[in-house]
Amino acid sequence: MTPARLPAAVVAVLALAMLGLCVALDLVNDPADRTRAMMGWGTISACVGAIAVATQVPVLWRHPRHPIAWVITLTGLLWSLDGLGESWAAYGMAHPPYPPLTGVAVWLVAQVGAFLLVGLPLVLVLYPTGRLMPGRWRVVSILVVVMAAALPLLLLFAPVSALTADGFEMPMETGMPELPVPGDVFVRLLSVGRMLTLLSLPLAVAVIFVRQRRASGRERTQLRWLLWAAVMCLVMSGIAVWLHNGWIVTAALMLALAVTGASIAIGILDPEVRDVDALMGGTVVWATVAGTVIVLDLLLVAVLDGVLGERLDQRDATLLLLLVAVTIYAPVRSRITALVRRALVGRRGDRYSVVTELAARLEESGDVRTQLPELARAVAAAFKLDYVRVEVFGHAGGTITATYGERPRETREVPIRYVEEEVGRLELPARGVRSMLSTRDQALLFDIVRQAAMAVRSARLADDLQRSREQLVLAREEDRRRIRRDLHDGLGPVLGGVAMRLDAAGNALDRDPETTRQLVARSRQDITDALADVRRLVHGLRPPALDDLGLLAALDQQAERMSTASLAVTVGAEDVPALSAAVEVAAYRIASEALANAARHAGARHAAVRLVGDHDALLVEVGDDGAGIGADVVAGVGLRSIRERAEELGGRTEITCPSEGGTLVRAWLPMTPTLAEEAR
């Protein structure tokens, strides 16, 4: 054991030793001895102290100088010492002449024990950092500590006459020093000190509230652990007040102390060990539902007792009560429990219904702009939230949003993902019990987000499909207009002129043979030019080499055309199946464009085209040993054309610059069933 961890071991041993002494003394003391000494079971106080120390031993083990851990530990040791004082005082007063330290034990219980009131306010103003708040709230925190210590300091050396003024009797003379102040004056001082000490607790709560409002990140999570402990203390206090049973009350208060100490230790050591928000929400819902059900159970018992009165004996009344509870009241109580849960936290418990209703709503709303309000309302209704904002990322960087309720000061965001793509986000309140999500709540939110992501994705795909159709129609009509213009403005006038020249040549054939020859020659040239225009139009629609030679031979021809003294181009193929017309054109155009870029911009000496067939895609790969593409180079028309041709068929491209130099262009063109059937 390292010296730094020695304090944790020492305080643990001290607490256990005092607990053991208290148990031994309480087993020896008779109830009459305790009554005569006006003392209780010291073991109970020692147990409280041991619990407090036990919760802080892990903190002292890791942080031996943590102020909050030492405040709670010293308070626990004082509890244990107070319990030992009770047990020893009862033992000593039962064995006159009094053994040593009997008067000190009485003094500890009657006067020193008041210092236990200082522990809680001091913890509240120090938690979670162990330091007082800065600024004016530091002054308030110091005032809290002074007020909390007012009554204990006055009681420390209070005159016996002042202590007995209200009817309290000291069991014996303690022999401890007293302040030389008249009893009536000191009684007024004690009244003021009592009021100051009581007021220190709400003022300490105000300090922790201000700290929580200013906190963020880890500190806020630590403070929520303390808030959960406060809720548990309220629940335990309610149980203690309701039952009025001494041992149950003691056990409830001990459990509350253990929960508080453990929560503080968790907040200091690892506040992220569990989702405290989910724990808080579940605790509040459970406490409310349990309280409602207990009240209804008691009302049922009271009503039956009032109706039946003395007409049935205890056995018959019990059987009738069980029959009524099982057959009539149990379903009603389940329904009431569901209503209470829905009123508190919405419909998050009915996971299947929420998801199915959302899916139905999204199916009825086909457009993203109408789906988003439905999604916002569904999330708000399911989780009983006052604010939900849904944002979907549109094309070209735009967004589409829908909002339910008014935005609070603090919110948190939940991404909406489809597979790996983030298609939007949900914005929810960050504070409040209803914003605290348990593991089941988070699973429900995930299902809702998944449904929304699928709907948004489907709507976006529908938009993309409509946009693609519009582009296809526009491209088709643009091609028709271009072909019509070329035929009307180019080929039409040329053929019309040829017809006129041939008519003129026929008229001049007998009288002027030379003019006829010139007209025929000019007509021949015009027809040759017209044929060239026709070939150009046909080549724009589909390269003739693909029909004449096939894809591989056409690429060989293109490679020969691109090869020069400074650039050598090779073509290779592996397992290339029969291809559809669309895939052939795309592969040819992509390879031709990549070779053109290598020849014009890369300064390459060698370029290679490779086709690799697969069961579902054709890989078109063009590599060169040129200069590559700089990081600051903006993609030009050629690279965009390569990507667009692949994307038109549902494929993808990859353009990289290997470390050994050059550029590598890869395009995967899918061999869909439709395209395969077209190829056959």
CATH architecture label of the largest domain: 2-Layer Sandwich
What's the CATH H-level superfamily name of the largest domain?
Histidine kinase-like ATPase, C-terminal domain
Number of strands: 9
Average pLDDT works out at: 79
Secondary structure category: alpha+beta
> CATH topology of the largest domain, anyone?
Heat Shock Protein 90
- What form results from the Cα inertia axes? elongated
Put simply, the count of helices is 23
Low-confidence parts lasting 5 or more residues at pLDDT below 50? 673-680
CATH uppermost class of the largest domain: Alpha Beta
Describe the sheet with the most strands. 5 strands, mixed
Gap between N and C termini, in Å?
Answer: 81 Å
Helical fraction: 55-70%
Domain Histidine kinase/HSP90-like ATPase: 582-673
InterPro entries: HATPase_C_sf, HATPase_dom, Sensor_HK_TwoCompSys, Sig_transdc_His_kin_sub3_dim/P
Catalytic activity: ATP + protein L-histidine = ADP + protein N-phospho-L-histidine
Pfam families: HATPase_c, HisKA_3
Q: How would you portray this structure in words?
A:
This protein is an alpha+beta fold and 680 residues long. It has 5 domains: 1-110, no CATH class; 118-126 and 134-214, no CATH class; 292-345, no CATH class; 351-457, GAF domain (Beta-Lactamase, 2-Layer Sandwich); 549-679, Heat Shock Protein 90. Helix content is 67%, strand content 10%. The chain is built from 23 helices and 9 strands. It has helices at residues 6-28, 31-37, 42-62, 67-93, 102-110, 116-126, 136-148, 150-156, 160-163, 183-214, 218-243, 246-269, 276-308, 314-345, 351-364, 368-383, 439-507, 513-541, 544-548, 551-562, 581-602, 637-648, 673-679, and strands at residues 388-393, 399-404, 411-418, 421-429, 568-574, 606-613, 617-624, 652-656, 663-670. The strands form 2 sheets. Strands 5-6-7-9-8 form a 5-stranded mixed sheet, with helices on one face. A 4-stranded antiparallel sheet has the order 2-1-4-3. Strand 6 (606-613) and strand 7 (617-624) form a beta hairpin. The radius of gyration is 45 Å and the shape is elongated. 31% of the residues are buried. Mean pLDDT is 79; it is low at 673-680.
